[in-house]
Amino acid sequence: MAIAKAERLMNLALCLLGTRRPLSKRELRGSIEAYLEAGSDDSFNRMFERDKDDLRELGLVIATVENLDGETGYLARRDSNRLPAITLDGEEAAALGLAAKVWQQARLAGAASGALQKLRAAGMPEAEDSYEAHHSALEPRIPVHEAAFEPLMLACRDRRPVVFDYRKANAARPGQRHVEPWTLECWRGHWYLAGWDRDRGAERVFRLSRITGRVRSRAGSFTAPVPDVVTVRETVETWAGETATRSARIRLRTGCGYPLRSRAQSIRELGEGWDELEIPYGHGLDAWLVEFGPDVVVLEPADLRADVVERLRAVAKG
């Protein structure tokens, strides 16, 4: 069975790489013997979708194109599936080795380990890991708990539009979003998706923990240009509340809110179990303060206090 599947995947990859125009499911079924032997259309469709996902997991970039008749076709462009010669010095190899240790999620850990093995087989130097002596005491980790992470990671990689239900912090119910995903960023322990919101015609950032239900892929190509990595990261930073333009004064319960205390510009004891903090105030601070619930009271500015109260009321309404 394993040999038959490997042969089927190889035949599908060769068909997609060898064509100059997108091939429909019907054409692919007529070109690959294993698909011809499928008992029904449903059986073929399930087999094809699994095979397509497996090839993408192996690194093959498969483009999805819609022709003039509205029929979806597939191809793997050679220029998108060919890497230039890779040359790394010792320091670069050490950085890759450290990055491969970051992921806690098993699927990513396996992919990172496999990538390192391929690079070393291609001649990448075995760098001396300056962190090796300390890794038993302290190891870098990036937690990934959101179910939306993996499908969005694959959609970013394959440049595939997605649709999902998203609950804003001040909304009682989630709303549907149609998004062209650009990249995922981890900021202050939370994952964010940066991309183009088709419904609003503008770039947006979505916190993965607020995505409800399943992330679903959509056929077709992106309609908006993808900005460079630096621009996307600046967008994530801004929408995550890291670009401070003013200061805010809050009351914080003693012994609570250590992330807020670490960013405070000043801290003054008020007594009776409360402290007063002055903290940087930028976009997204209201959503962050809501997470601390009754341990935080906003003193000023008034617009920040109003935003926090509105969010808390929305949460209370359910």
What does this structure look like?
- By secondary structure, the protein is an alpha+beta fold.
- It has helices at about 1-20, 25-30, 35, 40-55, 90-100, 105-120, 150-160, 230-240, 260-265, 285-290, 300-315; strands at about 25, 65, 70-75, 160-165, 175-185, 190-195, 200-205, 210-215, 245-255, 265-270, 275-280, 295-300.
- About 20% of the residues are buried.
- The model is unreliable at about 130-140 (pLDDT under 50).
Helices and strands in order, then pairings?
Elements (H helix, E strand, L loop, with lengths): L1 H17 L4 E2 H7 L1 H4 L4 H17 L5 E4 L5 E4 L14 H11 L5 H16 L27 H10 L3 E5 L8 E13 L2 E8 L4 E6 L3 E7 L11 H11 L4 E10 L4 H6 L2 E6 L2 E9 L2 H6 L5 E5 L1 H16 L1
Antiparallel strand pairs: 1-3, 2-3, 4-5, 4-8, 5-6, 6-7, 9-11, 9-12, 10-11
Helix pairs in contact: 1-4, 5-6
- End-to-end C-alpha gap: 50 Å
Residue windows where pLDDT falls under 50 for at least 5 positions: 129-138
Main β-sheet description: 5 strands, antiparallel
Query: What do the pLDDT scores average to?
Result: 81
How many DSSP H or I helices? 11
Fraction of residues in helices? 25-40%
Strand and helix order: HEHHHEEHHHEEEEEHEHEEHEH
Helix-strand makeup class = alpha+beta
Number of strand segments: 12
**Roughly how many Å is the radius of gyration?**
24 Å
Q: How much of the polypeptide forms β-strand, as a percent range?
A: 15-25%
Widest β-sheet, arrangement of strands: 7-6-5-4-8
State the shape: elongated
